[in-house]
Structure formats: structure tokens, C-alpha cells
Design a protein that fits this description.
heterodimer, A: 403 residues, mainly alpha, 19 helices, 0% strand, elongated, B: 123 residues, alpha+beta, Alpha-Beta Plaits, two-stranded antiparallel ribbon, 3 helices, 30% helix
Chain lengths: 403, 123
Amino acid sequence: MTADIPGLLRELTPRVLGVLVRRFGRFDQCEDAVQEALLAAAQQWPAEGVPANPTGWLVTVASRRWTEAWRSETARRRRETHAALLEPPAAAPAPAEDDTLTLLLLCCHPTLTPVSQVALTLRAVGGLTTAEIARALLVPEATVGQRISRAKQRLKGAQFTLPPSAELADRIVAVRHVLYLIFNEGYTASSGPALQRVQLSAEAIRLTRRLHAHRPDDGEVAGLLALMLLTDARRPARTDRDGALIPLAEQDRGRWDRAAIAEGIALVTRALAMAEPGPFQLQAAIAAVHDEAATAAQTDWPQILVLYDLLHFVAPGPMVTLGRIVALSMVDGPRAGLRELDLAAGDPVLAGHHRLHAVRAHLLDLTGDTAGARAEYELAARRTLSIPERAYLESRAHRPSSK
Amino acid sequence: MKYVILIRHNLKALEVWASMPAEQRAEGFAVYAALTEDLAASGELIVTEALAHPSTAKVVSVRDGEVIASDGPYAEVKEHLAGFYLIECDSIDRAVQVAARIPEADFVEIEVRPVLDHISVDM
């Protein structure tokens, strides 16, 4: 049987780590031991076959590694302080529960910086090696190693238990945020050289699925998962053969992933019926309206506008303002949009933002002001920080004429 | 986000450097060492290098398929890149904070530039 061993190892990582931390405490050392066990499995299993009880195998090897490390540390300390060599704590029986949620909360602990939260989550919960994380994030391995070790240092005193329920909701907000960051890191238009890279958006979806399994009634977790699925569903149509971006309106919708769309729509529909809609649910709902339209022309823009109005009420922000203006333009015409855009430009966060220029360019184009559109596309291209987006904006600026 | 911090030297900077007492120069190096160490420890450092004097550079061009490598740089160059940091941090404000710790910031302008990424959003 040619099992997907890397995939299996990633699935088992949080369970094995959970068992170890419950058994021995000391998250930082347990995490090292689990990484070593994962490496051993990655080397041995392809040749020797997957053991009958892979979790048990990993727990045994990781526990052995932990004990060895503990012994050598104790011996070192004994040499230094002449303390008696203690026996390692007795192994507690492996609990049946899945510690994924507790681990996610720990990795997204508020004392850590976002970049550290991302790296630690991918390793301790995602089961990726430091090298894989480094390749995926396009940074050197040493940088990722440092982020992880510093994060673990900071977590030394942290409890490996679920926080009290009053605190839990806030802590899950941080987890959702980190998962969304991971998703966006993976949302690149690059291909080819990226072949060797772990697909971070797929990793984010996998981890969010696990979180959703633990918190099925958390509407925002469902909304986040739906948003990821509904966005990722368009991936096959987002770029042309040369890797250039294709805007939503021009994508070949036949290439969208229908199964992902159906799952995303079911998730967000259920979530919206459950509770007050949060920002992820509303963004997912907007993505769903786009994904449901058979053609760009059939997009239900009035509904998108209503959803943006709600989103603006629940979680206002510069990108929401711009999204709402685009929707408004599709309902009331580009001139109405341009008027709103001039008002929005008064917001210091938006003034000079490349996307404000990109939206203005698009709207000017729709009014027939080709020269004005070109100037705005050029401004936007100069200010964006994304290579594919820059290429797209430049191609719009230098188009012979607008449609 | 990744940022590159560019340290450019000009004639004034070289004069300031030349006129510095040895202890003050040593102090500058110590500030650099501490900055690099802090950035490595926080997981923000990607790479940093100091560059050799521009008189050691080669200027390369290809004309009609022929590679021409001549000694550089041109005499009229008033400013040259002396070193750089490539860091990854959470905001440009943090990158500015890092740049402000560079000893030359006292007498030249340090440039902080965002690095382009491959991340894209739907249009």
C-alpha cells in the first residue's frame, strides 16, 4: 500500500503531542521529542511500512526521546549541583481526547508575535518540519527555527489546559486570525518553482476543519472555513498558463471547484442561521454570492451590497469600504461609486492605498475615461506590494483601449 | 512582511567616519552587533551583510551578447550602498524602529523598502 505518509504524520501530530504533554508536561521539550519521532517515522515507514498502530508507535518513540533528553539533562544538572538522579515521571495512560484545540490555543497564545504564532502552529499542530515551513514562508530555516524556539521559550509557564469559558471566546479569535494568516500566505499566484512547497492554503483549510470539528457551533469558525473553501475553489481559474492573474469577472467558471463551493455554501448557510453574523461569515456569504453566479453578469450585486453594508456595520475597515464601493457601482453605476470613493479617500488609511487607485481606475474605465483610468492603474501598480498584482495592474494600464 | 533596510554612505558619512575616535567606532560596531543579535533572536532577521568598498566592484553589462565587466563604479557616484538588512516583521513601523537603531542614522538617511511578495487577492 502506498499510503500518504507525510499526510498521515501531519494528521497524527497534535494527538501525539497532546499525549506527551499530558504525560510529561514541558510543552517545549515534548514538541522537540515529537518532531524527532516524526522525522524517524518519515525515514522508516516508507521502507518498513506503516505500523499497525501509528499513533502508538509515534508516542512510544517520542516518549523514549523525551526520556533520553530528560536523563541527559538531569545527569548534566547532577554534575553541576550533585543532586540525586531522579527517575523520569511515570508514564500516565494515554487519554482518549484529542488535544488539537488546546494546542491551537497554546500556539496562538497572546504573548507570541503573529509570525511566531504562524510558525509554531504549523509545526506543533500542522506537523510540518522547520524546513518545510521555511520553504513555504520563503524565509531561511534558521529564521523559522529561531521563531519556534523563542515562542516555546515564552510558553514555558503556560498551562496545557483549556482556558475558562469566559476567556475561551477571545482566545479562539486569535486562533482564527492565525489560521487566516496562514491561508493568505498560501494564497499566491506563483507556480512552477513552488512545486516543492507545502500548500499553505490547503494546510490552513485542514487545520480550520479540525477546529470546526471541535467547535461546530462557533459560527465564525464555520464562516472562516467557508470563506477559505469558497475562495480556494476559484484557484484553478485565477491564473492563466503564464501565471498571470485573471480577475473574477473574466475567470472560466467551469474550472471552479464545485464540491468546495457546495461545502462552503452549506457551511455558511448553517452558520448564518445560527447566530449574529460575524465578519468571517459575512465575507463567506459575499464569496458565496460570487461563486453561485453562473456568469459574472448574473452576479447578484444588490445582495452583495446588502452584505457589505452589514459587514461595514459589524467590522468596518478600509477593505470593506472599497468592496462596498465596488458593489455600489455595480448597482447604481460607476459615477455613484466614484463619488463615494472621493469621500473614502479622506480616510488616512485609504489615501494613497494602491487598492483605492485600482478601484478608481476600474470605475473610470467603466465611465469611458480611458486616460484617467490609465493614470490610476499606474499609480496602483507603483504602490502595490504584490508581484502578480503589479503585473495585472500594469497590463491594465497599458491596454490599447478599454472595452 | 519583508523589508530591506538600505544603508547608503556618502562623502559626508565617510568624513564623519574618518574623523571618529577609535572608541566611538568600536561603539558603532557594538551597536551593530547588538542589533543583529536582537533581530536573530526575535526571528526577524533573514540576512544582513556589510559591503566592500565600491572601488572593489565590477560593473557588468552585456552588449551584443558580449559580457563586459569593467572596474566600477563611475567617478561621479556620490553615494554607495554600504550594507543592508533583510528582515521580516509585522509592520513597517517595526522596520522603521529597527532602522533607527542603525548607527549611521545619526548622519545619513537610512531607507526602509517593502519587499514585493507573491500574495495576491481577487480582483
